[in-house]
Amino acid sequence: MTKIDVQLFDHFPNTMKNISTLLLASVFTLALPVGCIVVSMPASAAVPSFDFTELAEKASPAVVNIRTTEKITVNQSGNQDDEMQELFRRFFGVPMPQQPNQAPKKRKPAPQQGTEEEVPRGIGSGFIISQDGYVLTNAHVVDGADEVYVTLTDKHEFKAKVVGIDKRTDVAVVKIDGSKLPWLPIGDSDKIKAGQWVVAIGSPFGLDNSVSAGIVSSKARDTGDFLPLIQTDVAVNPGNSGGPLINMNGEVIGINSQIYSRSGGFMGISFAVPIDEAMQVVDQLKSSGKVSRSRIGVKLSEVPKEVAESFGLTKGQGAFISMVEPGLPADRAGIVAGDIVLEFNGQPVAKWTDLSRIVANTKPGTKSTVKLWNKGKTRVVTLVTGEMEQDNKPAKTPEKGLEPQANPLGLFVADLTEDKKRDLKVSSGVIVENVDGSAARAGIQPGDLITQLNNYEIKDAKQFNALVAKLDAKKIAVVLVRRGDASQFIPLKPAAN
């Protein structure tokens, strides 16, 4: 099976501009497979044509080329041209081409050992958002660069200052010294629709001011990160990173950021950061140089449809709390593993990724209300959000308990000892000693702790086995399983009696 990756638009070294000669000389042919049926379309169903010239002429002056450099220390004598020739040979299998009518360069004297040199690092795109020179681009275009240079379409080059970078949304703001510069108006990415025409302008493969057009394929493609991305079929390639995605009114609705590719080149799917989300980040970067996000101290997972139906929810909605970190806002508010978050500050949580984004976009220190569901009932708690930080704690390995007893779910469980209850900080539950059948197929393991069956809190093994014995073999049963510090609802089908 061919591996398919979602890739960032790797920006190419400046010397790679020479490959444009190779690219323009290449011709690709698409052949139809033998036996395929070709359907001819009537003239009335022909794809409509659009003229993008006026839009491109107005927008292009505000779209910039961004090149970055880094400083390296030469530890041994050598020649940079030789290194680039070797790099080109390894990646393309041919010598690096020279510009037309360009005489071979004279070999420079080898630098002394320990000399610091500025070398090309990468190429990307960007666009000006204000007359005084604020430029928006991707974080991965400028992250790690020692120097950033911005070139306008009139070939005027500026040395830029990085105002701030946010890796989570892949947004960066840089500043050039200028006045009355061309700039692009900001649109509303929330109003776009699938099928809408859009245009991308940027520097694919270092080719300045390249224009391509297509349609919005999906308004909000969920990537599982902090924001959903706009999916389009606009032709974008390495070097387009940071360039604008523009609607037919000439307004920016996204920042081209990623491609879905087997080869690293365009294959019909590209992604852009929604401009509404990006501008929230821009405001913080301009004011403080960083982005502050909230956290409440939980780990989340989706609510499976089977679990939702078993618990009486109309659909698999909300965010399941699989773990609560001690001492953090959720823990102090009384939120526990097994709760399902339905709303946060009045905003509905349709899926678990929604909660991450809603909380992250909340200012740290905000008093917030959380609507929860558990055991067939809803409750509302209040908490004050904290500031996001990394805090991963290792899971504890449960120990063995008392003599196990079998049940129709394939679970061999035993009571917890008093010492084990104190260690796990629980007052009830049963320990899994062995698994079989449905439980084994669902991934439950010896050492797991079971705290709930459907809407019942489990006190001991006798009660648990009694409840399991009464289960309907035609209905799915749901157990709340804790492993280490994390909990998860797992649906199981009881064995027929």
Q: Main traits of this protein?
A:
single chain, 497 residues, alpha+beta, 6-stranded antiparallel β-barrel, 6-stranded antiparallel barrel, 11 helices, elongated, disordered N terminus
Mean pLDDT: 78
Can you tell me the residue ranges where pLDDT is under 50 for at least 5 consecutive residues? 1-47, 86-97, 390-405
Strand order of the largest sheet: 8-9-10-13-12-11
Largest sheet: 6 strands, antiparallel, barrel
Helix count equals 11
Helix content: 10-25%
Helix and strand content put the structural class at alpha+beta
Could you tell me how far the N terminus lies from the C terminus, measured between alpha carbons in angstroms?
A: 42 Å
**Principal-axes shape call:** elongated
How many strand units?
A: 27
Beta content comes to 25-35%
Q: Supply Rg.
A: 29 Å
Describe this structure in words.
The chain is of the alpha+beta class. It contains eleven helices and 27 strands. Strands 8-9-10-13-12-11 form a six-stranded antiparallel beta barrel. The protein has a six-stranded antiparallel β-barrel with strand order 2-3-4-7-6-5. Strands 15, 16, 17, 18, 19 and 20 form a six-stranded antiparallel β-sheet that branches. A hairpin with a 7-residue loop joins strand 8 (197-202) and strand 9. The chain starts with a strand and ends in a 5-residue tail after the last strand.
Give a brief description.
The protein is α+β, with helices and mostly antiparallel strands and 497 residues long. It is built from eleven helices and 27 strands. 17% of the residues lie in helices and 33% in strands.
List the topology elements.
Layout: E1 5-8, H1 20-24, H2 53-59, E2 63-74, H3 80-92, E3 115-128, E4 134-137, H4 139-142, E5 147-151, E6 157-166, E7 171-175, E8 197-202, E9 210-221, E10 229-232, E11 244-246, E12 252-261, E13 270-274, H5 275-288, E14 294-295, E15 298-301, H6 305-310, E16 319-324, H7 329-332, E17 340-344, E18 347-348, H8 352-360, E19 367-374, E20 377-384, E21 386-387, E22 411-415, H9 418-424, E23 430-435, H10 437-441, E24 449-453, E25 456-457, H11 461-469, E26 477-483, E27 486-492
Antiparallel strand pairs: 1-12, 2-3, 2-5, 3-4, 4-7, 5-6, 6-7, 8-9, 8-11, 9-10, 10-13, 11-12, 12-13, 14-21, 15-16, 16-17, 17-18, 17-19, 19-20, 22-23, 23-24, 24-25, 24-26, 26-27
